[in-house]
Structure formats: C-alpha cells, structure tokens
Automatic annotation (TrEMBL):
Membrane-topology annotation of the record: Multi-pass membrane protein
Keyword match NAD: no
Membrane-spanning ranges: 21-46, 58-79, 86-105, 111-133, 145-163, 175-193, 253-275, 287-307, 319-336, 403-428
Coiled coil: none
Organism: Pseudomonas fakonensis
Chain ranges of the Major facilitator superfamily (MFS) profile domain: 21-432
Protein localization: Membrane
Protein name: MFS transporter
Keywords: Membrane, Transmembrane, Transmembrane helix, Transport
Main localization (coarse): membrane
UniProt xrefs under InterPro entries: MFS_dom, MFS_sugar_transport-like
Length: 443
C-alpha cells in the first residue's frame, strides 16, 4: 500500500526503534509476573516475621490483583487524556518506589497497602505500554510482536522464583525484605531504557497536535516521511470513553473481556495450583513436582506457537482452535481423572500448549479493536475485568476441589473454555490484514 507514491507507515519495514520499543514495553508483563510471583516465594517467611493471620496472608497475596483491577482502567483513562509518553516513564518510578518501600514494612497493613499500590501501577502500565507499541508497529508485525509480550509474564515469574530462592538462601531471617524489594532492580532498568521514548504520533494527531506528530514520524522513520504517510482514521467522528459501554464498541469490550476471562480462569488455576491438582489426580512425589515444572515450561512453548501462527492462521481462527483443543484436553481430564500418570501429564501439557493461542491474543485484540482516542481506556478496562477472572481461577480452585472433586472441576473448566469458543465464533472479527485505523473502525 502506498500514499502519494510512498510507503504507508503501516507497511514500512520494521526498524531498530520498533525493536527497542518492544523490549521497553515488555516491562509491563515482566514486572507483572515478577511482582505477583515473588510474594509466593517469601510468603511463609514473611508470615512468620510479621505474625500474619490467615486473613492477612490472603490479603497480602490478593492486594496486587485488587490493585490491578483499579489501575488498569484508571491508567487507561489517564494515558488517553495525558498521552502515552509521560506515564510510560512515571509508572516505573512508582513501581520502583513501592517495591523498595516493602523493605521497611513492619505491619500487615503497610505491606497490603504497598502491594495494592504496586498492583495499581502494574495495571496502569499494561494499557499505556501496549497502546504505545501498537500505534507504532507496522501491520505485518503488529500481531506477532504484541503477542510475544505475553511470554514475558512467564519470564518475569521464572526470574522471581530463581531470584527469590537465591535471596532466601543467602540473606538470613530478613531475606523476605530483600526479595520483595528486589523488584526495584528490573523496574529501574526498564525506567532507564524507556527514558527518551517519543510520544505516539497517532495520539498527537487525535489531539490536533499535527506539527508534533510530524516531528515524531520524521524522528522514527526518517526525514522523507510525514503525517501524510500515516493512514487516515476511517471515521472523522470522535470517540468518547462512554462509547465503550454501549453500541458497537460496547460489544467489542464484551467480546474482549469475555474471551480474556475464559482463557485466564483455567490457566491461572492450573498454573497456581498445578501440584495440588496433580496430587488430586493421584500424582505424587517427583512426578507431581517435575510435572508442575514441565507444565509451566509448556505454557511458554504454547505462547511461542501462538506467536508463530497468529499471521498464518489469523486472529479469529487461532482463537477458536485454541479454545477448542485446550477445552477438549480439560474434558478428557475430567472424564478420566484416575488415568495413568503419564497420560494425565500429557493432557495437562496439551492444555498448556493449545491455550497459548488465546493467551497471546490478550494483548492483540484489545489494541486493534479500538481507536486511538480510547485505546488505552479499552485495554485498561479489559485488563481490569480480566483480573476478576484471575481472582476466580486462583481462589475458587481449592474450594472446587474440596466440594465437587477434581473430575467435576476439570469439566467446569471445559465449560468455561466452550463459552470462550462460542463467544469467539459469534463475535470475533478478523483483523490480520487491516491497518490499525480500519481494524479499530466501528463499522
């Protein structure tokens, strides 16, 4: 596609700026995985040190998830009103300060407050980082690069487990303080990398700041390019945040939030409680311990497979296949809960592999289906609503295992996957070949 005999910015080749911006933006999912996981590593030690009650332990673990629920939508609103650039840096300052503050806590209340604040900052970082990245990426690489960010959650979680265990073994009785505060290191590193990142040219244009948008385009793509090379929005009508709650964009929010929730409930449950679930299915000892590790690794391979298939299959087909085959794996686990150990692990591994398609689309669809004026708000709202699914998946699994048993728990998870498949079949658009303006158009 060309504009005035020149390449449209949607079809421009991927350059060094795009690659660096992708790395900088990966800080959102990396810190999400790190900060949410490090608390699990040190919970026993800090609980003894602060003499936490069972209720306080639960609140310490849940505080960041609750904060993310509020931070996602609020952060999205601010990034749409104030721009991507400023908050892109400030949110990491907040993460560094709140992480370091955990070192000096002396009460459950103080720790809960700081974990909540960290959740707010993480939640705010998701919409602004992914929106900024989506608004610069060429159409051919937009899906695969946005999708690849999801893997950084697992990388962050893995680094947290390794760093946390090392700190607990090396730092003595107060090691939990050092472990919690250790998140300041990646936060500061990403802060340094993000410094100097330009504002989104699309956001500047949406605010009528044409000259500044033109300067950004020339800086990123070269002096021969200008705003004339950026595809025009399909509609000149301004879109307000209120549109996310009704009409066509309301339907898109419903679709994005529901598919995200249906993909995250079983995934969070299996990821968080793999040893407990495997034990309920008769796997014990090394088979259960190493099986849980293997399932976690396969989750990463599933995301990698999703990144590879997102363009050949397209968004809609990949999402339908992801829900179908991962759901069938859960159904077989429910129908044969006392199967051979290796068969059980193979079915869990199949689920982890096939759900990767739905996982990686969690960053792609929200950024493609909404226009620049409300993109941050839409991604933030979807992030907030998905945390409800994360909380359900994390906290209802023990109750489900004790009340209805492992077989019915797996069948219930299959049902959730089928809801995701149905809503995808009825509502998912295909945006693979569309530029960002056309993909986000209401019609």
């Amino acid at each position: 596609m060309t504009i005035d005999n020149k390449i449209s910015l949607e079809d421009a080749p991927l350059n060094a700026f795009h690659k660096k911006l992708a790395v900088y933006s990966s800080g959102a999912p990396f810190l999400d995985g790190y900060i949410l996981s490090i608390i699990g590593v040190v919970l026993v030690q800090l609980s003894q040190a602060l003499q936490l009650s069972v209720f306080e332990e639960g609140m310490v673990a849940a505080a960041s998830l609750i904060g993310m629920f509020f931070g996602g939508f609020v952060g999205g609103l601010f990034t749409d009103k104030l721009g991507r650039k400023t908050l892109y840096v400030l949110v990491l300052v907040a993460l560094a300060v709140f992480s370091l503050g955990q070192f000096w806590v002396t009460s459950a209340a103080a720790l809960i407050a700081l974990r909540f604040a960290l959740g707010v900052a993480i939640g705010a970082d998701h919409p602004l980082a992914t929106s900024l990245l989506a608004e610069f990426l060429p159409r051919k690489q937009r899906g695969s690069i946005l999708a690849s960010l999801v893997m950084m959650w697992f990388v962050g979680a893995a680094v947290a487990y390794v760093a946390g265990e090392f700190i607990l073994r090396a730092m003595g009785p107060e090691a939990w303080r050092w472990a919690l505060a250790s998140a300041v290191v990646p936060a500061v590193l990403f802060l340094i990398m993000r410094a100097g990142t330009p504002e989104s040219a699309r956001w500047l244009l949406s605010k009528g700041r044409t000259a500044e948008a033109d300067q950004v385009i020339k800086r990123v793509y070269g002096s021969k390019f200008s705003i004339a090379d950026l595809p025009e929005p399909v509609s000149e009508r301004r879109v307000s945040v209120g549109a996310l709650f009704h009409s066509h964009y309301g339907k898109r929010i419903f679709f994005v939030s529901l598919f995200w929730t249906c993909s995250i409930i079983p995934q969070f449950a299996i990821y968080a409680f793999a040893p407990k679930i495997l034990s309920a299915m008769g796997l014990t000892g090394d088979l259960a311990a190493w099986g849980a590790v293997a399932i976690t690794i396969i989750f990463v391979f599933g995301c990698m497979l999703g990144v590879k298939l997102i363009n050949p299959l397209g968004r809609r087909r990949m999402l339908m296949h992801s829900f179908l085959w991962s759901g069938l794996a859960l159904l077989l686990l429910g129908l044969f809960p006392e199967g051979a150990g290796l068969l059980t692990l193979a079915l869990f591994g199949s689920y982890a592999l096939f759900i990767g398609g739905a996982q990686v689309l969690q960053y792609v669809y929200p950024n493609e289906l909404f226009p620049t004026e409300v993109r941050g708000s839409a991604v933030g709202l979807a992030t907030s609503l998905s945390r409800i699914g994360a909380a359900i998946g994390t906290y209802l699994v023990p109750m489900s295992l004790s009340s209805i048993g492992i077989a019915n728990t797996m069948i219930a998870a299959f049902g959730i996957s089928m809801v995701g498949l149905l809503v995808t079949w009825l509502m998912a658009p295909e945006t693979r070949s569309l530029d960002l303006a056309k993909a986000s158009a209401a019609a």
